[in-house]
TrEMBL record:
This is Arginase. Keywords: Hydrolase, Manganese, Metal-binding. The keyword Manganese applies. One of its GO terms (cellular component) is cytosol. Signal peptide: none annotated. One of its GO terms (molecular function) is manganese ion binding.
Length: 293
C-alpha cells in the first residue's frame, strides 16, 4: 500500500438501492455530484479518477445484485489504494461499506467510525421488516450472510471493538439492547437532551491506540431540521457544523484512510440541503487531509 494516499482521490460511485439503479437512495450519489463536488475537490489541488459501478441487472434478486455491487466496490477501492489514491465512495446503500473494509483488510486494526441514525446490526433471524440494508454491520462482524460474504475478495471480520457509532438514536428495544451489550463504542443521538457529539467522539478515540480509520457517513445521521435524508430519518441527529466538528476530531485523533457517504434519498423534503451538507463534509475532510499530507 502506497504511503502517498491522500494526494489523489479515487471517486467511486455506486448509485444503487438493492442493486436497482438510481432508485430511492440509489439516486443520492448523483444529486451530491450535481452540487459541484468535483469542482470543489479539484480546487483543493487534488488529482482524481472517477469510476461508476456498471449495472448489475443480470444478477439474481435483491441479495445477488447487492453483493455484486459490494464485490465491485471492493475491487475498485483495492485498485485505488494500490495506486496511492484516497477512496471516496458515494453509495446508495450503507452495506457498501463491506466492500471498502474488504479492500483495506491489509491494514491491521483500522477502526470504522460510523455516523448513522441506526445500528445496522440486524441479522436475517431478527429483521422482521426484511430490510436488507439494516444488516451491514452484522455482516461485517461475521454474524450473517457468511457464504456470500466469503465471495467478497479481501473480506476479513471486523470486530465491534473496532467500531465507533456516532448519532445512533432510532433503535427498537431489541436493537438498543444488542448494541449496548456489544463491544462497540457509541455516541448516542436523541432529542431528549443536548449532545456534544465531537467531544464524545474524542473520548471514545482515547480509549484505544489505533492509528487509522474508515469514515462512514450515513446521511440520516443528520438532524431532521436540515431535511429528511431518507425514509428512516429521525430527529436528534447532528447539525451540519457538528458533523464538521466531528470530522476535525477524527482527523486530529486518527488517519482517515477512506470515506463513504450513503443512505440519501434526494427527492424527500430538504434534499438539496442534505446534499449541500454532504458536499461540505466531503470537501472539509479532504481539505484537512490535504493540509496534513
Amino acid at each position: 500500500m502506497s504511503n502517498d494516499i491522500g494526494k489523489s482521490i479515487a471517486l467511486i460511485i455506486a448509485p444503487y438501492h438493492t442493486g436497482i439503479h438510481n432508485h430511492r437512495v440509489g439516486a443520492g450519489p448523483h444529486r451530491i455530484l450535481a452540487k459541484g463536488l468535483l469542482d470543489r475537490l479539484h480546487n483543493l489541488g487534488y488529482t482524481f479518477t472517477f469510476k461508476e459501478i456498471d449495472p448489475v441487472d443480470d444478477f439474481e434478486g435483491e441479495i445477488g445484485r447487492s453483493f455484486e455491487v459490494i464485490r465491485r466496490i471492493a475491487s475498485y477501492v483495492s485498485e485505488a489504494v494500490k495506486h496511492g489514491s484516497f477512496p471516496i465512495l458515494l453509495a446508495g446503500n450503507c452495506n457498501a461499506e463491506i466492500g471498502v473494509a474488504a479492500a483495506m483488510s491489509g491494514i491491521q486494526d483500522f477502526e470504522v467510525v460510523w455516523f448513522d441514525a441506526h445500528s445496522n446490526m440486524d441479522s436475517p433471524d431478527e429483521a422482521t421488516s426484511g430490510y436488507f440494508d439494516g444488516m451491514g454491520v452484522s455482516m461485517l462482524m461475521g454474524e450473517s450472510w457468511k457464504a456470500l460474504m466469503a465471495t467478497v475478495t479481501g473480506h476479513r471480520l471486523v470486530s465491534l471493538d473496532r467500531a465507533i457509532f456516532c448519532g445512533v438514536r432510532d433503535l427498537s428495544d431489541g436493537q438498543r439492547t444488542k448494541l449496548e451489550k456489544s463491544s462497540a463504542r457509541v455516541v448516542y443521538g436523541g432529542s431528549a437532551s443536548q449532545v456534544d457529539f465531537a467531544s464524545g467522539l474524542g473520548v471514545l478515540f482515547d480509549r484505544t491506540a489505533k492509528s487509522s480509520c474508515l469514515v462512514h457517513v450515513d446521511l440520516d445521521c443528520l438532524d431532521t431540521s436540515i431535511g429528511l435524508a431518507n425514509e428512516y430519518a429521525a430527529p436528534g441527529g447532528l447539525g451540519a457544523d457538528e458533523l464538521l466538528d466531528c470530522l476535525n476530531v477524527i482527523s486530529a485523533k486518527r488517519k482517515p484512510i477512506a470515506l463513504m457517504v450513503a443512505s440519501f434519498s434526494p427527492d424527500l423534503e430538504g434534499g438539496d440541503q442534505i446534499a449541500d451538507v454532504a458536499v461540505d463534509a466531503i470537501v472539509h475532510l479532504m481539505s484537512v487531509i490535504k493540509e496534513k499530507s
